[in-house]
Specification:
The protein is an alpha/beta fold. It has twelve helices and twelve strands. The protein folds into two domains: 234 residues, Aspartate Aminotransferase, domain 2; 128 residues, Aspartate Aminotransferase, domain 1 (Alpha-Beta Complex), CATH 3.90.1150.10. α1 crosses α8, α3 packs across α7 and α9 runs parallel beside α12. It is globular. Bound molecules: pyridoxal-5'-phosphate.
Length: 379
């Protein structure tokens, strides 16, 4: 056993997980190589079926990435020039980028500071006659507050597109996120809670007509081959990633339990270290939601200094996200000045993601909490 002082704690450790499933992954890869069928095909059809069932959705469409899933949903719903799409200012770029790529205008709204997720009242207030869709992001593995959003759009027929890329398996009022609105995009980027060994994504929806349109869009809008009904793209999930996902899926519920246990250990360790007196705020899990702790994000005073201090003590942490979307250079022409979305800006200054993965040990977590507490007491 290594001494705690020299202990290294990574943010995520994909190798630790691979060690436990190596034989199953190798068998899956071998199966695809032996089949010589690499694009779509049986593996993709099977994983779509299995994932639709896991996510309680009628339809699942395998996609090349989470970004392409979101882009294709917006294409399928006809998002384009002149449209406004409301989304959160505090997230990864993919949803906002997809809106802009289609020539529509992203309308950024602020977050609920407790959950980091879109503030439903702010979203409702931002609706206009041009609103084409609302895109909540279920950030860090916690569902956004969906019912007030669904209610806000119910009279107007505005679709809700969920960015569930960080929230595979997360639940809202007992239901998995993704197909709570019209459609949702998920990501299998390797470090996501269910990660492929390359890029991959998924769309889930209960709308059969939309699902068929998305299947067309995924393959250049062609049906049959070389006969193009609509303009799509190459948004296909490949068979290798599908087979690897099928090998991992039977384990994912157990991995979520391990993440939730690690979150609960953090809560106890931080309580024992009394860090709240220094202004550290821990993630919350509202009663009507089931957090998968894709990321374990705290708020901390002197965040940047703490991040550097932990780095120098072998503890890897991450800043999600240093610049909120409304302040990104590429959106400067939209004219959001500093101070317009204060909760998103505050989150960008204070949020710090701590090491979190199913195989994280109590000893590692104790080292993380002790190092944070010592730093905050000293400074
Ligand atoms: C990872 C992620 C995406 C995009 O997923 P890719 O598969 O990397 O394209 C979209 N939105 C959020 C919030 C994400 O974290």
């Amino acid at each position: 056993m290594r001494q705690p002082t020299g202990m290294k704690v990574p943010l995520v450790d994909l190798g630790a997980q691979y060690d436990t499933i190596r034989d199953e992954v190798v068998a899956a890869v071998t199966r695809v190589c032996d089949s010589q069928r690499f694009i779509l095909g049986a593996e993709v059809e099977l994983v779509e079926k299995e994932l639709a069932e896991y996510l309680s959705a009628k339809h699942a469409v395998g996609m090349s990435s989470g970004t392409d899933a979101l882009l294709a949903i917006m294409m399928g719903l006809g998002v384009g020039p002149g449209d406004e799409v409301i989304t959160t200012a505090y997230s990864f770029f993919a949803a906002a980028g997809s809106i802009a790529r289609l020539g529509a205008t992203p309308v950024f709204v602020d977050i609920n500071p407790a959950t980091f997720n879109i503030d439903p009242d702010a979203a409702r207030a931002a609706m206009t006659s041009r609103t084409k869709a609302i895109v909540p992001v279920h950030l860090f593995g916690l569902s956004a507050d969906m019912d007030p959003l669904l209610e806000a759009v119910s009279k107007h027929g505005v679709p809700i597109i969920e960015d569930a890329c960080q929230a595979f398996g997360a639940r809202y009022r007992g239901l998995p996120v993704g197909a709570l609105g019209v459609a949702g995009g998920l990501s299998f980027f390797p470090s996501k809670s269910l990660g492929a060994y390359g890029d991959g994504g998924l769309i889930v929806t209960n709308d059969g007509v939309l699902a068929e349109r998305l299947r067309l869009l995924r393959a250049h809008g062609a049906e049959p081959k070389y006969v193009h009904k609509i303009v799509g793209g190459n948004f296909r999930l490949d068979a290798m990633q599908a087979a690897i996902l099928r090998a991992k899926l039977p384990h994912v519920s157990q991995w979520f339990e391990a993440r939730r246990e690690a979150a609960s250990r953090y809560r106890h360790l931080f309580a024992d270290a009394d860090v709240e007196v220094f202004g550290v705020e821990l993630p919350v899990e509202p009663q009507d939601r089931w957090h998968t702790y894709h990321q374990y994000v705290v708020r901390a005073p002197r965040r940047d200094e703490l991040h550097a201090h932990l780095e120098s003590h072998g503890i890897e942490t991450a800043i999600y996200y240093p610049v909120p979307l409304h302040r990104q250079e590429c959106f400067a022409s939209l004219g959001y000045s500093e101070g317009t979305l204060p909760q998103s800006e505050a989150a960008a200054r204070t949020a710090l993601a701590l090491p979190m993965y199913p195989e994280l040990t109590e000893e590692q977590q104790a080292h993380v909490v002790k190092t944070i507490a010592e730093y905050l007491r000293m400074s």
